[in-house]
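Morning!

This is the sequence you dropped in the shared folder:
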Amino acid sequence: MLNYYLHYVMSLYGNLMKKSLIITIITLGSLLTSLVHSAENLSIERIFSAPALYGTTPRLVQLSPDGQRVTFIRAKQTDTNRFDLWEYNIKEQRSRLLFDADDLHQGDENLSDEEKARRERMRLSGSGIVSYKWSADGKALLFPLAGDAFYYRLGDKKAQRLLATPEFETDIKFSPKGNYISFIRDQNIVIMHIATGTETAITTSGGGNIKFGMAEFVAQEEMSRLTGYWWSPNEAHIAFTRIDETPVDIIKRSEIYAERIAMIEQKYPKAGTPNVLVDLFVQDINQAKRVAVDLGKQEDIYLPRVKWTNDPDVLSYQVQSRDQQTLTLNTFSLSKQATKTLLTERSNTWVNLHNDLTFLKEQNAFIWRSERDGFSHLYLYANDGKLIKQLTKGDYVVTDIAAHDEANGMLYISARKDTPLEAHLYALDINTTSMTRITQPGKFHTVQFSRDASIYANTFSDINTPPQTGLYRADGSFITWLDENAVDTSHPLQPFYGNWVTPDFGTITTEDDTSLYYRLYKPAKITGKHPVIVYHYGGPIAQVVTNRWGGNRGLMFQYWAQQGYVVFSIDNRGSNYRGKAFEDPIYKNMGEIEVQDQKLGVDFLRTLEFVDPNKIGVYGHSYGGYMSLMAMFKAPEYFSVGVSGAPVTDWRLYDTHYTERYMGNPNVDKAAYDASSVFPYANNLQGDLLIYHGMADDNVLFTHATKLYKHLQDNAKLFHVMDYPGKKHSIRGKNTQIHMFKTITHHFDTYLK
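The structure's back. Tokens below.
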């Protein structure tokens, strides 16, 4: 569920503006005035069809290690779900198509079950070239396609297919010096010397319940750890996990497709049940000498992060307790065969994971992110674990380290210092701890730096403007556009701007004086009182209300507003980017404070003269689907119509790492699990409820839906169902998305208007 939200957020893109034009949150200003030559209404079919209404937005933007090129993938004009690889040559100041996926592979891409599952965990949709990697020297590119690996050395006329095998290789990487590629085949780690094509199996005993170098289900889905092996900087060793799935319960489930039913036996660790057993090893790639890393006496732990330091003799790794209230950062010395704990994070609720651990090259120190003072901030430590100083401080959150310019003592970070609704780039002086915002306000910015931290690519947007991508110097000065994506007369979105609705942003204050941010779309023409669709997610590690382009879902909000609906969202307590005190109220009490805050949103809506107080609908997916159920069941006087997509219904059925983080262990905290289930409240259903679910969902299992169906039927409660054969949690596919949103809209049109 964590990755569902994280990858959804990433799919909303994000980012820039023409220097001469600033569009505020409140108004489209002169841009819309100048562009309105026609006024077409959106349709659901058009939202999900090519060419994409958001334009030619690059994805997976990377600067080459030598800083000479910017690479990215881009959807075809004729197919928004098939991607090619592009580059922008900085010296030549031009973009060109590097590889057309259709030239390398045509026809269906028959992904292995493991790769399908991995992509679902990554929320990676589409076909063609959907990922790629640079070699460390910036002279070659590596990308998977249709189960094989393609290698391209700059200057060559074509890419070389390295893995033309019947097996399906996954998690393909360059070695640090670019001499090898590595991958997983048949649950083992294999390396290939690029120059000779010689393969060497690093492990050979993987199979069945034993997997080498692979991330287990909860590591992928909930820890955002998508790999299980890591090269040393000198290319001499590989650290890797060995997981044993023997203790994990087997869930027997049916994946229902249009013309068949597949019986699946899935290793799925439900809350309160055993996890995998995990071990960590380091192996010499030439001598096959393997060393075990001591993870401690307690076997029932998580291994969320592994990272080599700048010293090829020293490996860092993090160990998280089963209750997730303790996280330790440790190192292992190969030469000394010794482990050391550098620091320990503790919480009375839970410790959030992050990826911000930066080892400095010129001084014996590292930078670490922590929430110990209540907000996510950066700290400077000596390599022996002694705290030197706190680098950032205040009632805001740092979200990640973008780059480090050690020579000049500068750290470039992304943070929500100015407003929680926008991500900005800041320059942080490590010596003085002074911070300067680099990016322009009124936009949501996502950046990718060059290795030397001298330039960065910035993709940015706002609620009204699709993503734009430019190239900038570290001080924020503009170099060139990578994709201006201006909404001019040739842009696919331009005809629809004539009927565009600019939402209002504001705050609502709770009884304990906490501010909740909301976003409100109003119909362009107010005629009496209008029905409302409340869209929410509501869960942790999530934020719905941002000043950011909303992707296809945001276009659906525009569509509904054009159909006469008020569309409203509010980020309740328990959601992200507001500090730990804002998150913690859901601890062992899911579905309570979130509903209270959503009701406050409705109380506010009822004060608006153009809102019909008796026609308030609610819609959400995943945790948002759970929230729709809880809203309909616990507050029927507030929500008369609901749509619940792929909902959790009983937290005992969801996975260990996510669920126990917030709810504790069901074997101990039975009362908390009972109270946070939808079932004690289901008989309160009064309004018109639609539930939809993918019938091959391997994350929020279809069992969640069928268990609720049976309960409502047994209690003679009427409801509506739309299930999707063969679809996973994300319910992907152009026509499926069209059908799903038509179904949702029809439900609201029927029962809310």
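Headline: The CA atoms of residues 536 and 620 lie 5 Å apart.

More detail when I'm at my desk.
O.
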